[in-house]
Amino acid sequence: MVKLSPARREALWAYLLISPWIVGFIIWTAGPMLASLFLSLTEYNVVSPLRWLGLANYSSALFSDPLFWQSLKVTFTYAALSLPSGLAVGLAVALLLNLNVPGLSVWRAIYYLPSVISGVAVAVLWQYVFNPRFGVLNWALSLVGIKGPGWLADPKWALPALAIMSLWGAGGGMVLYLAALQSVPTALYDAAKVDGAGAWQRLRYVTLPMISPVIFFNLVMGTIGTFQYFTNAYVMTQGGPTNATLFYNLHLYNNAFRYFRMGYASALAWMLFVIILLLTLLIFRSSTVWVYYEGQLRGGRG
Amino acid sequence: MRAQLRGTTALRLIPRRQALAQLAALVVLAVGAVGMLFPLVWMLSSSLKPLSQIDLFPPRWLPTEQVTVRIGEVAYPLYEVNLDGSIRRLVMIEKVQRTGIFADPADLSQRLEANVKLAKPVERVRLRWENYVEAMTAVPFHRYAINTAIVVFGSMAGMLLSTTLVAYGFARFRAPGLGALFLLLLSTTMLPSQVTLIPTYILFSKLGWIDTLKPLIVPSFFAGAYDVFLLRQYFLTIPLELDDAAKIDGCGTLGILFRILLPLAKPAIATLCIFHFMWAYNDFFGPLIYLQHQEHFTIALGLQSFNAFRARRYDLLMSASLVTVLPCILLFFFAQRIFIQGVVFTGIKG
Amino acid sequence: MEGRGFSRREVLRMGTAMALAGTAAACAPAATQAPPPAGTEVATAAPATPAQPAAGEKVVVTIFVGMGTGTAPEQQKVQNALAEEWNAAHEDIKIEYMYVPHEESRTKWAAMLAAGTPPAINMPSGVEQVGRFRETNLDIGPYLERDHYELSDFGDLIPEVGKYQGVMYGIVMGVYPSVLYYNEDLFDQAEQDYPPHEWGRPEWNYAALVEVAKKLSLDSAGVDAAGSGFNPEEQDQWGYDEVDCGLGFNALAVAWGAKNMGWSDDLRTLYFNQPAWVERLQWVSDAIWQWHIMASAQQVQAASPGFHTGKLAIDHCHSWRMGEMEELSFHWNVGAIPAGPTGILVAQCDVDGFLICNRFPYLDAAWEVVKWMLEPEQMLRLDLTWGALPPRFSLRERYKEEMKKRFPDLDLQVFFDSLNYIDIPNHESFIPRYGEIWDAFNAGYQKVLTGEEKNAKAVLDEVQRICQGYLDEYWAQQS
């Protein structure tokens, strides 16, 4: 048998282990993705034959679709509002739930509930919170003398309302942080205490770095997910009022399955793909600075 | 020490500063918990109401109905009628424009006329437990439950098998092009699925898998991007020294995975299982697209029939939803133990 | 130790991993070449002689339910029972129902069509689909001729709704005429006369409606909108609504004198800012912001004043609203829709029918199934479960009897008389880029509802510009 060099053996093992994903990618994913790329260069409405359009869909989006720019604006604004705060809240809740509070398992289950309940019940909850006249939020504001806005019925406030809603679902991220917090070695905390570090310093110099891989994960997946935000806008506001919550993915969905403009929708999808890819690459670039891996191979990718 | 038991209630005297911090935490948690529990409470309340009372706003938390008095074969509605200052409880026999014809339930022959403005319906609390029975029997729930179990656990097995292997490959090895492949893996989540829906459907159609559970199970055996990324991140937090120690002890490549990494990654694996369960259990779009006959439906898809166009039965939807949400709540509640119990073992110095 | 070799367990695990990958690869077709979508072949018109199944082969006719109503559990029971009856009596053709939730029905139907496996029949489906899917809709004219199909029981007006640009694609199976639902208790409390049940009364026009509605719009102190001291910020009751129902604005504008449904006959020019439309939209704006008889978007968010809540005195809506009317706590009935400023009376009608997909291989079989469903017996059962009125004159009495069981005091004749004033062409008539044009219109309409822009002309000029742009782009791409 040929004796392979250690590097070769390692590479072979790597590809072998990854092979399930590679095979799956080839079978299930690559074909449809390429098909949609092809469709983006056509006019396709399912009932009629394809028509070749070249790049017309792309130029149409950039130059003659006002809703394209509107939806980009909506999506970027929402991301700026909800991503940072979502990360922070998820982490904060996890830290809270990592304390020695009585009834902890009950609290954890309660805070995870939002991720479990979906659909109509959640929509109704938010109508109570955001109701202009009887809602919790405006009532709380009135206590400090502010007249609350129309929220979901107000073009200027519908988007912030949705951003506030996203905080409530922080339970998903919370679970990941909890898992990570559990595995920070207590030896590190002990050593830090011995060095005289206070609670805040322990958080900053021990906890955060040790869970930074999970923060990184939440940031990347959060970015990818936020830019494809769809469900709540679809269910609660349908993009309104007056397109104030017309998210990019909703505009895409409308074009695909309301207007049956599959070609145009595919073009929109690939443009979003590029945007998300660039942002993700940026995050990856930055990660070498702030993400710490205990088990990272030298020269491996962060 | 890798980790120690955390979050267990400790019955011992604690210093005052810690007690105050805990109290503050409790207050914050309690306030937040109200918001978290609210939908459940609303669902419970709605599931016991008749359809006409569900979207009243401001809401009525207790379902009510107007009291009726059965006299002979007819049930007459009961009102409190204001007759020149004195309030009497009368049943309404008939209404002619603005005038109601009322009578004392004890003696129907004595009729009184009064303007309907002066009559207020008498109501009482009534919890409609029959909503649950109706919801559970309106659709073949047992059939749906079996299909759901097959899909959820079948795909979970595939997910675990493939994700552990692939995440290990990305986390612990160096190879040319591996970084690019990882980026490719991630990039598959960046294209909105609406535009690959039809090509994917055509693919499954050509395979002959439409109207079977296969499209919902088989792809999980090929590792999804989210799961792989998550587990890979987790693997990267485990020190390399453990791998090296195992190698010295004679452990092979796969042995490191199964003997070192996976036991330490139990919280992450548990997380993956919980997330996967929630996602697969609640996924109705996949079943909607790929299934055709009702006997193949899953629970999530079956629930949609209560949300029909121009025929919404929110009362039944709420009862059915509450019943189906229970497994998720229970699952998370009990799976927490895996988070709480870390792994204790003799670790490495430094 | 390097080079130790693999333990037996490791070999087993490796082997499993490889075998899995191997079998998967073997199972997969050459999927790197994406199968072309079904539409790349030139769309064939329905073959002159439809395919016939081999002798003894059973044809499965799938009925797709979801584009309209029909997917609720009790509706499924009724429809499944019909299928069972047919299947028991027929050896050669089998009916199978497919139920898809409404919001996703288009998506699923598109996927099935693209994969080349479309359902045979779409039932119930509405007017929009007649035009939108005309390339896949079967022209049933030849079948009607071949079987000398009798349409007189449907009257003269109703069969027209199943046509698009002169071609008959479907026959109406259920109609949802519109009426005014009114809350008797609220009228009693305000001491106002109920709206008339008789259609075409000269004194009953929108101006009279406004006067009545003002008296029925109350704030929390009980002051009505006609009186002084009315506080719209604290409004608790509204006199009128036409927005929640989703009525077609183009049909409403006909009562104000609009001569078309918003576009030219050649479908190239839009008239969204014609005088009748501007006046009609200004009426809506005034109803909300001047007379306070209709709820604004904020008020709807705050109070959800649906008719069944008892906070709305008059609801201008279709007959399917009755599906929400079980066990209400107040007395209600229905009345006639008022006439426009110049006396024009329009009561728009939603319509459900069937469409046969011309890509389905066994069209004769599909037509047989449809004919059976159109027979009075089956049609009545379907209509009762869909919440529709039967278009057949011969079914009217039986329908009334059935409805009396659910709503004993309801004056059903108002619905039938409404059919004399339906909108033809229908408000859902198709136009290229239908979805985007109406979404753009609705975005403009919402500006009036939220108060962002209360001037109807400003709104409609903008909408006209945007929508005409869509239409121009479409026609430019066709050449």
Helix content of chain A: over 70%
| Class per helix and strand makeup of chain A | mainly alpha
Percent in strands of chain C: 5-15%
Order of helices and strands of chain A: HEEHHHHHHHHHHHH
Quickly name the level 1 CATH class of chain A.
Mainly Alpha
Largest sheet of chain C at a glance?
Answer: 9 strands, mixed
Fold-level CATH name of chain A: MetI-like fold
Q: Numbering strands along the chain, what is their spatial order in the largest sheet of chain A?
A: 1-2
Structural commentary:
The complex is a heterotrimer of chains A (302), B (350) and C (479). Chain A has one domain (39-290): MetI-like fold (Orthogonal Bundle), CATH 1.10.3720. Chain A has 13 helices and two strands, in the order H-E-E-H-H-H-H-H-H-H-H-H-H-H-H. Chain A has helices spanning 6-39, 56-64, 66-97, 104-116, 120-130, 136-143, 158-168, 171-182, 186-194, 199-226, 231-237, 248-258, 262-290, and strands at residues 42-43, 51-52. Chain A has a two-stranded antiparallel ribbon. In chain A, helix 3 (66-97) packs antiparallel against helix 10, helix 10 runs antiparallel to helix 13 and helix 12 (248-258) runs antiparallel to helix 13. Chain A starts with 5 loop residues before the first helix and ends in a 12-residue tail after the last helix. The mean pLDDT of chain A is 86. Chain B is of the alpha+beta class. Chain B has three domains: 1-47; 64-125; 132-346, MetI-like fold (Orthogonal Bundle), CATH 1.10.3720. In chain B, the strands form three sheets. In chain B, strands 2, 3, 4, 5, 6 and 7 form a six-stranded antiparallel beta sheet that branches. Chain B has a two-stranded antiparallel sheet with strand order 1-8. In chain B, a hairpin with a 2-residue loop joins strand 4 and strand 5 (99-104). The N and C termini of chain B lie close together (10 Å). Mean pLDDT of chain B is 83; it is low at 1-12 and 342-350. In chain C, strand 4 and strand 5 form a beta hairpin. Chain C is an alpha/beta fold and 479 residues long. Chain C has 16 helices and eleven strands. Chain C has two domains: 9-175 and 352-412, D-Maltodextrin-Binding Protein, domain 2 (3-Layer(aba) Sandwich), CATH 3.40.190; 177-349 and 429-478, D-Maltodextrin-Binding Protein, domain 2 (3-Layer(aba) Sandwich), CATH 3.40.190. In chain C, strands 1, 2, 3, 6, 7, 8, 9, 10 and 11 form a nine-stranded mixed beta sheet that branches. Chain C has a two-stranded antiparallel ribbon with strand order 4-5. In chain C, helix 2 (73-89) packs antiparallel against helix 12.
